[in-house]
Amino acid sequence: MSEITPDQLLQQLKQHASTRTQHSLDAIFQVCMEQQGRGLNEFSYATIAKLGAGRGVPAAQSIRNKTGEPYRALIKSFVDASPKPKKVAPSSSKGISYSWIDELEDPVVRLQANILYSEKKQAEKLLRELVPINQVIEVFDGGSQSVSTVKLSELERSALEYLLSSIFLRRNGLEHGKNGTIVKADTGESFFPVATIDAIKKALTNL
């Protein structure tokens, strides 16, 4: 069964309405048609009331009131009839594994997830910078050991110590997992991969 069109709904609403309400309905219908003709999907009560000021459209508050139910129904019919905006493809900057973050509907949850993702990327970047790709560190189990020339700055050491701290884990809803991982406390999903904790501890001890 096809949905009722705004024009059909207008006629139904006017059947049992007072003359004044009929005029208001006609005015709202005209303003909504103009918005539709402009290709705009903006049908908020404030916008319709502003565009229809002096043309018979009630104030925004009157539309929101209990007596404004027919006005709201008519406006909603235009909203429902408007083409829905196409869903924007998730940003590829996070990669496939984390593209779901941009699809979260709750803005607060999306913000928190982006903060966690940003902290994760910063930590990974720091770990990569600790030992450059062309730097080789030899570790001997015998009596003599070679001393690496790579040293942590105080800022780098503080950053790594923070990653191991209970404050970082609690603030981000994380906990220590198996095999040196850091996982999400509620789901157990991996946040930092296997051996991350071991790698940080070794870096703090030897660098």
Shape call:
rod-shaped
Helix content: 40-55%
Question: What is the first-to-last residue Cα distance?
Answer: 72 Å
Chain-averaged pLDDT = 80
Tally of helical segments: 10
Total separate domains: 2
Proportion of residues in extended strands: under 5%
Total beta-strand segments: 3
Which consecutive residue ranges, at least 5 long each, have pLDDT under 50? 144-148
SSE arrangement:
Layout: H1 6-15, H2 19-37, H3 45-51, H4 60-64, H5 69-81, H6 95-98, H7 107-130, H8 154-164, H9 166-171, E1 174-176, E2 182-184, E3 190-192, H10 196-206
Antiparallel strand pairs: 1-2, 2-3
Helix pairs in contact: 1-2, 1-5, 2-5, 8-10
Q: Summed up, what is this model?
A:
The protein is mostly helical. It contains ten helices and three strands; from the N terminus they run αααααααααβββα.
Outline the structure in words:
- InterPro entries: GmtX-like (IPR048061).
- This protein is mainly α and 207 residues long.
- It has ten helices and three strands, in the order αααααααααβββα.
- Helix 1 packs antiparallel against helix 5 and helix 2 runs parallel beside helix 5 (69-81).
- The protein is rod-shaped, with a radius of gyration of 30 Å.
- Mean pLDDT is 80; it is low at 144-148.
Summary tags:
207 residues, mainly alpha, 2 domains, 3-stranded antiparallel sheet, 10 helices, 3 strands, 53% helix, rod-shaped, GmtX-like
